[in-house]
Amino acid sequence: MQTEVSSPIPRLIHQTWKTRDVPPEFLALQRSWTGRNPGFAYRFWTDEDIGRFVAEEHPALLPVFQGYADPIARIDLARYLILRRFGGVYADLDLECLRPVDGLLESRSFLVGQEPEEHGRLAKAAERGLPRILCPSFLASVPGHPFWDHLLSRLVEARHCPDVLDATGPFLLTRAHATYEGEGRVTVLAPERLYPVTKDDCWSGRLFDPVFWEQATREAYAVHRWEGTWFRGAAERGAGPGAELPRQIAAVVTDGRSEGDRPTVAPSSVAAEGPPLISCLMVTRGRSGLLRFAIEGFARQTYPNRELVVVCDSPALPQDDPLERAIHDAACPNIRLIRVETGGLTLGDLRNIAVDRADGRYVCQWDDDDLYDPCRLEMQQRVLAATASQACLLGRWMIWWPVENRLAVSCERDWEGSLLCEKAAMPRYPALRHGEDTPVVEQLRRSARVVRMDLPRLYIYVVHGGNTFTAPHFEAHWQAAAARFDGGRCRALLEEMGKRLPVEPYRRVVVSPSPVPAAAARQESVLVLTPVKDAVAHLPRYLELLGRLDHDPSRLSLGFLEGDSRDGTHDWLAGWLPELRQRYRRVTLLRHDHGFRPDGPRWAPAIQRRRREVLARVRNRLLSGALGDEDWVLWLDADLVDYPRDLLARLLAAGRDIVVSHCVLPDGRTFDLNSFRLDGPVAREEDPRHLVDGIFQPPRGAGRRYLDDFPGEEAVPLHGVGGTALLVRADLHREGLCFPPYSHRGYIETEGLAAMAGDMGVSAWGLPGLRVVHADH
């Protein structure tokens, strides 16, 4: 009867290689063992270490060890002897640890894993009639386990076997276990624990399929890459999915050309001509912190003959321009930057400029906020050439919501953003601000030979809050997705994809963006807008605080709208206009009365609908009358009594399209309850019982969390914002973002602005640590 040995398996990991120079393709896999098992000691053995160990510890076995013609046989013997002497865990370098192995070792004295059942049907295994195969790539045991002596005796008997699989490898291990009758128990783990994928899955490229990888590894502690360094040459392994087209790629070709337009001879092969030049076309405003990932993604492409044409419709910053810095840091010579001085051009217009300036035989859309696998160009070009097509599109791609920790494989359709096309066949883009690429693909379907390929990991479309399309658009794609991942499985799949893509650095920028350099922030032109009513008592302090901001006053414009005042606010401001216009870039003073003078406190629920409706109309009228060519709009209350000199710099440095500070009373209590985040999951709705006059007015804290609930956090996503110190990218206002004076999904005025922004695909953010102080009245 077999029993467990009482002592635990030592928390010690052993790995081996010829020298200490581990091949680059194994470094991440090697780190997975120490990273996933921080409480374990680690010992690395070179061939020299192993030779010395066998000579000193097992001199009787030295003739057997030295007699092996194949070096892998000596490594097989060494791993058995090392574990017999020291115990612990042995793992091949091409085995990746996916989770801590403590759970496997608990209450066990010897562990070995079974290879996938498919391996038993391969020729060599079938010839030997082995019902299952045990694999020595992962072994764990206590020192001196009885099985080792049994195995070594069988190994000595088999030392003259010509095939290493029979002499020292899996077949020997399997046969030894079948005849073992010792007292120490040997636990055999099912394939899904250590060997969830087959050799063919790895070698065919199937492991590159995200859905297959996620399903295969759900119960796995490790995954074996089956690199086969002892029998496969470097040309056969380590090249990744770009080495050849994975067999699982599905490609569908449609030909919209008339019979007369179709060529009568096959196109010359790429091998004969050499790879044609591909021009990747990127249109950008040049300010996003994400564009560097798109530029770096181009620089890492495996396709050799390429260029990146960057069309930017914003002037360069005098110092530390983020676009020019990203291009410089990429250290890639084949990048051209074209700045377009003409204002008011649509996205379609800018894409046409990029096409016109491209030198390549092919053009490829290359958006400035997405992630691209290093073999994207190579794989799309291979499919294009193999099918003699003029255009190639992805039929599915990945969609990632970093803030919400969601990842999806999209539904099947033509993903316009993935277009790779012959320049000669490329239609013109229509003059649209968004959706401009859909008509182009529709025209290509009617006029060209188009191939749609299915390899979703080539492209990750990121939903980061500043996309062209709205949040409902992306929610619809989530619901229609071919596969959806959230929580722990999303993190696992992102970690797998992170071996080839900068997933984690990208996530950090979206969730906690890097600060904009102070010099760059001071160059942004900002319009400060303030509605005023009976504000004479507050305006001297307002102008004092504004005057000490550490932002270049020549880059600041001011706008005021006065209405319904009884204390001479308009005349007071009019008297200051000459002085203000000397200091600031531009100053606008407007006046409009709405006749709203309620009795009682302004926070009474009965008047909220009317009060905030009027305030929304005031803000919208002020915006339309004062907005010029500024980059940003800062909505600033007149009755703030204090805020830091770097208020504007910190709001700009947050790197968000909509961001609000934390407004408090002089005693430190949170004042602005319009800045909130719904409690619980992102999709959670307000309690309909709190709907009063068509707008949500819950008691404080009912289903909502305010900025004082997030101490220590740099930035948090919000579902509603207040307007005491609110920064909005001016282009959002130009594109229709306003303060709804009506109930927009139960929200009005500033809260309605945040809801409307969400519908536009833009997230609002709050900075809990950036405090502004409001008068207590």
Automatic annotation (TrEMBL):
One of its GO terms (cellular component) is membrane. Keywords: Transferase. One of its GO terms (molecular function) is mannosyltransferase activity. InterPro entries: Glyco_trans_2-like, Glycosyltransferase_domain, GlycoTrfase_DXD_sugar-bd_CS, Nucleotide-diphossugar_trans. It comes from the Bacteria. Residues 279-387 form the Glycosyltransferase 2-like domain. One of its GO terms (biological process) is mannosyl-inositol phosphorylceramide biosynthetic process. PANTHER family: INOSITOL PHOSPHOCERAMIDE MANNOSYLTRANSFERASE 1, MANNOSYL PHOSPHORYLINOSITOL CERAMIDE SYNTHASE. This is Glycosyltransferase 2-like domain-containing protein. It comes from Azospirillum thiophilum.
